[in-house]
Write a structure and sequence with these properties.
It is built from ten helices and six strands, in the order αααααββββββααααα. It is α+β, with helices and mostly antiparallel strands and 406 residues long.
Length: 406
């Protein structure tokens, strides 16, 4: 029996790993294009992009692992059934329910893995991703700047030398601030550093030993008198630089998706005194949604196997498509149900747990019929009857075009 278990796991492992690899590459490649738009042209752009992609990996793994498990079970057991290997197992007294024991154990392991992903990895990496994006957008002077290269930040163009990122310091900076009709201002300094200013929502540069030239009108008019420039020097001056934001290095947990399962459970069971009803419902929606997604992984073997194992003359490829449609539709129902809970329009037991219970009942019923009943279930016959006209049409078109009918 251990040999059979290892054989089954080998049959499903390859499509599972392939589906995870392809899914992650597609999802991360799409996001990489958008991240490059933010950081392209900067010295550390590729390092920042790969760091951000690493933070996004747990989010996409939460989507890819259950779907890859489902696809792997469909393709693996479909191959076993197609090659008549299932008949050999049945003839040897090894039933489908016994063959499914190894993949049920695999689903349990992946479910524990999903707890780690949804419960801890995703909240922390989501917060880290947002922190890096804030850094890129608001403190790009020290995160993405290149020494000796002109850069743009808002209305200001600047260039600096001898950048020390770890200490937030630099030497010899030139800043040109174009304010439109209000004029322009040019500032130079021998050195400077990044400081934290209380109440300031933008990063602040503290400049030392510099000069400033200000013109109140720009561009200069041909007929008007030249505006009197204002020039001066300073030993120390502070100037904000970057985009205004209200989320400057905020603590983790302002968003319910940044909370671990334990923290989320604590907030749902004992909401903070200053919590508003909207926040309470958002936390409740997130907690129930994560629990449903984790438990769904355990049900996937019972849902996939009946669609993978069919009669000889049934529409195998179409049945796999039907199974995928059912899983995708279920995922959409869960997503919409979570949204309804967030806006306080429904109970999570109605919009999340009821669809989950329906999926469990459907999967166990199909699995019982395939494993312990000789006649095929009615759903199998319904799918075959519904798809037979399309198969006949395909054969007729192939014959008309001179091809070999399938």
């Amino acid at each position: 029996m251990a040999i059979a278990d290892r054989y089954i796991l080998r049959q499903v492992a390859k499509p599972i790993l392939t589906a995870i690899a392809i899914g992650m590459m597609v999802l991360l490649a799409e996001r990489m294009v958008r991240l490059l738009d933010v950081t392209l042209g900067k010295r550390n752009s590729f390092a920042v992009v790969f760091e951000l992609l690493a933070y996004l990996a747990p989010h996409y793994l939460g989507l890819a692992v259950p779907l890859a498990l489902f696809i792997g079970l469909l393709l693996g057991f479909n191959k076993i059934s197609k090659d008549s290997e299932l008949d050999a197992f049945l003839a040897a007294g090894i039933g489908l329910h016994r063959l499914a024991r190894s993949v049920m154990l695999l689903a349990a392991i992946l479910s524990v893995f999903s707890i780690a992903i949804f419960g801890w990895l995703q909240p922390h990496t989501r917060y880290a991703y947002r922190a890096v994006m804030f850094t890129v957008s608001n403190i790009e002077v020290f995160y993405l700047a290149e020494e000796g290269v002109f850069m743009q930040s808002g209305t200001r163009t600047f260039i600096m030398d001898k950048l020390q990122r770890g200490e937030g310091a630099f030497e010899r900076i030139f800043i040109f601030d174009y304010k439109g009709k209000a004029g322009a201002e040019t500032t130079t300094a021998a050195s400077g550093r990044l400081i934290e200013a209380p109440g300031q929502t933008r990063p602040v540069l503290r400049l030392e030993n510099g000069q400033r030239l200000k013109i109140d009108e720009w561009p200069l008019s041909d007929n008007a008198l030249l505006p009197l420039p204002q020039a001066g020097s300073f030993e120390m001056a502070d100037t904000p630089l970057g985009t205004i934001t209200n989320k400057i290095f905020r603590p983790r947990g302002n968003d319910e998706r940044e909370l671990t399962l334990v923290e989320l459970y604590q907030r749902v069971m004992s909401p903070p005194p200053d919590s508003i009803p909207r926040t309470i419902w958002e936390n409740r929606s997130e907690l129930h949604k994560r629990a449903v997604m984790i438990l769904t992984t355990l049900i996937l073997p019972f849902l996939a196997l009946p669609f993978a194992i069919t009669r000889r003359r049934s529409q195998r490829a179409y049945r796999i498509g039907v199974a995928l449609i059912i899983l995708i539709a279920y995922h959409e129902v869960i997503e919409r149900g979570a949204v309804l809970v967030r806006v306080q329009e429904a109970s999570p037991y109605l919009t999340l747990w009821l669809p989950f219970a329906a999926l469990v009942a459907f999967a166990f019923w199909r699995f019982w019929v395939v494993c312990f009943r000789l006649p095929s279930d009615k759903l199998d016959q319904m799918i075959t009857n519904a798809l037979t006209p399309f198969a006949n049409l395909r054969r007729a078109i192939a014959a008309r075009l001179g091809g070999k009918p399938a």
